[in-house]
Amino acid sequence: MEQEFTSQVLESAVTELSRLPGVGRKTALRLALHLLRRDEREVTALGESLIRLRRDICYCRQCHNISENDTCAICASPMRDHRTVCVVENVKDVMSIENTGQYNGVYHVLGGLISPIDGIGPDSLEIASLVERIAAGGVDEVILALSSTMEGDTTNFYIFRRLSAYPDLKLTQLARGMSVGNEIEYTDEVTLGRSLLNRVPFADSFKS
């Protein structure tokens, strides 16, 4: 039975909070009532930070990582190895890899994985821009750092086929220190770091 509200303001807040992933109406109500008990300045600060998040954050035109400028801090840094590009599914994976302290190259964020059952094809992802980036030159190695799932493997193979037109490009993937089925963001930093350092040629995955 749907919760009835005595306040339209409260109902509106619950409705908006329940739009967040993993938040049902009961949880949304608990959060709304919690915010009502907090100091008005705290709630105002929260609201303003969310507005700034949506207004001031954009995506890097080079790698599609989140940024406060057209070019993110990683792509703009002269201290990074711009000849090595690590391909990841999403922004959370960039954060996970950065936390290992084992990688000094740059990134390319796909924005998802190929998943026909979910209606996500190659054209829905930033694969074409990756190919354009490689075609422009200046990249020696592409590291496929996608999750060890069916969708990750499908996306890896599709990218491999698209980049096979560049024979001088070194194409590698994470060493299988990660368990099959694992997602990057849930892999511990030590295992992820070792998988990066011990990466192997992608073509080797076809060998028995």
Notes on the protein architecture:
The chain has helices at about 10-15, 25-35, 40-55, 75, 90-100, 125-135, 150-165, 190-195, and strands spanning about 60, 65, 80-90, 105-110, 140-145, 170-175, 200. About 40% of the residues lie in helices and about 15% in strands. The strands form two sheets. A five-stranded mixed sheet has the order 4-3-5-6-7. The protein has a two-stranded antiparallel sheet with strand order 1-2. The chain has about 210 residues and is an alpha/beta fold. It has two domains: about 10-55, Orthogonal Bundle (Helicase, Ruva Protein, domain 3), CATH 1.10.8.420; about 80-205, 3-Layer(aba) Sandwich (Dna Topoisomerase Vi A Subunit, Chain: A, domain 2). It is built from eight helices and seven strands; from the N terminus they run αααββαβαβαβαβαβ. It is elongated.
